[in-house]
């Protein structure tokens, strides 16, 4: 998962599908608790939120995507540090059992121009901790993003899974729910996070396609 400013031209025309909707409802979803194999852990809230769905197709099968792309530390370092120009991307915890992979990543993205209201609240160096859990049976990755600033006000949870498109192609589907509980500026921060997610995922998809072509040689 990534959010942070990226060069706009790197993302043009690459997103196959993006759906955003604003909602006001009570939600219960799995939340990835590091060190807990249970799928019953949930978060619950009742407040405005923004939901996002992003889809990209790749020329590889599911095993290649998970093994050589998603969980490849070298691939991720190249993508985040070089292509997306993040300031930091570091795996701080990685553990695997028969049923689950746990991964925690500390991230400091490249942040574009921030609205004054946001900058005064969080400053320039916005970072976050990505707490992820991959369920080997369902082959779904659940993630909880914990920001370094305003962690009690900002909630970003997401889920990634693949849809097979034949034997050698697949579609990555990412869904996220963004909630900022701050009077007056909550919707502004939500829109900024959503915009950064779209740009980062589009640029990341372009890099992934390029990387897969090099693997095929």
| Portion of residues within helices | 25-40%
Query: From the coordinates shown, what is the CATH architecture?
Result: Alpha-Beta Complex
Supply the number of helical segments.
Answer: 4
CATH level 1 class label:
Alpha Beta
What is the chain-wise order of helices and strands? EEHHEEHEEEEH
Which fold name corresponds to the CATH topology? Naphthalene 1,2-dioxygenase Alpha Subunit, Chain A, domain 1
Low-confidence stretches: 6-15, 23-47
Radius of gyration: 17 Å
Strand percent estimate = 35-45%
- Give the total of domains: 1
Tell me the overall shape. Answer: globular
Q: Which class best fits the helix and strand makeup?
A: alpha+beta
Main sheet record:
8 strands, antiparallel
Care to count the β-strands? 8
Give me some keywords for this one.
4 helices; 217 residues; Naphthalene 1,2-dioxygenase Alpha Subunit, Chain A, domain 1; alpha+beta
Overview of this protein structure:
With 217 residues, this protein is of the alpha+beta class. The chain has one domain: Naphthalene 1,2-dioxygenase Alpha Subunit, Chain A, domain 1. It is built from four helices and eight strands, in the order E-E-H-H-E-E-H-E-E-E-E-H. It has helices at 62-70, 73-83, 116-122, 186-216; strands at 17-30, 42-58, 88-96, 100-108, 128-135, 140-147, 154-164, 170-180. A hairpin with a 4-residue loop joins strand 5 and strand 6 (140-147). Helix 2 crosses helix 4. It is globular, with a radius of gyration of 17 Å. The two termini are 27 Å apart. The model is unreliable at 6-15 and 23-47 (pLDDT under 50).
